[in-house]
Structures are given as C-alpha cells and as structure tokens.
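Exercise 7.
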Amino acid sequence: MFLYKNFLGGHPTTELEDVVRNLSNVLGTKRGTGYFLPNFGTSDVGFRTPEEMVVALTAEIRENVRLWEPRVEVIDIDEDWDDAGKRTRLSVRMRLRASGEKLQVVVDLAKRTFDVVGAS
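Solution. The predicted structure, written as tokens, is:
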C-alpha cells in the first residue's frame, strides 16, 4: 500500500499487513461505488437465494483476488454450516505467493461482512 505508507503517514508494515489491508478494502467495497473500476469490489447480494449468493460471491472473491491482489493465491473456498443446517459463512483460505504465509477471509452471509483473519 504505497499511498498508505508514503502519503498518509502510515507506519512501515509487513507484506502480510499490506495484503490484509488491501483485501479489506477490495472485498469491503460495494461493486460500482466509490471507484472508477467497474469490477472492483463485491456485488450487493440482497435479492438472491443463498445458493446464488454463494456462487456469485465465490466467483467475485476469486476474480478480485486475481485482479487486485496478485501477491495472494486462493487455495480454497469452503462453506460453513451452522447447527440448523443453514449456510452461515464462507471461509476463503489463501497463501502469500512470496513467503507462503497463510491467511483466511471469513464471509458472514447473514451479516454480509468480510473479516480478514491473518495467518491460520
């Protein structure tokens, strides 16, 4: 995050911290708002079935990581279920290409939030 470190007075960060900050920005931005790039961020999934939501978000996460965070490789995306058998979140496991460090993004489908969980 060149701008963060050099123009916004941010403290020096590790590559993992840079990646986490960038993923939070990319995945936390609603597609089509705030940026001039039409495929930046994730779509609003409000009126989709749970199955459509999972398919759309999985594809958009893979696309966003490929386009906007090339330092990371998506290893796997799994669906997690709650006790009632309802899909509650997506777990996206990734690896930094340079160092092999692992991180995880948890997408809560009910709350529609993205949490980057660092190394796991």
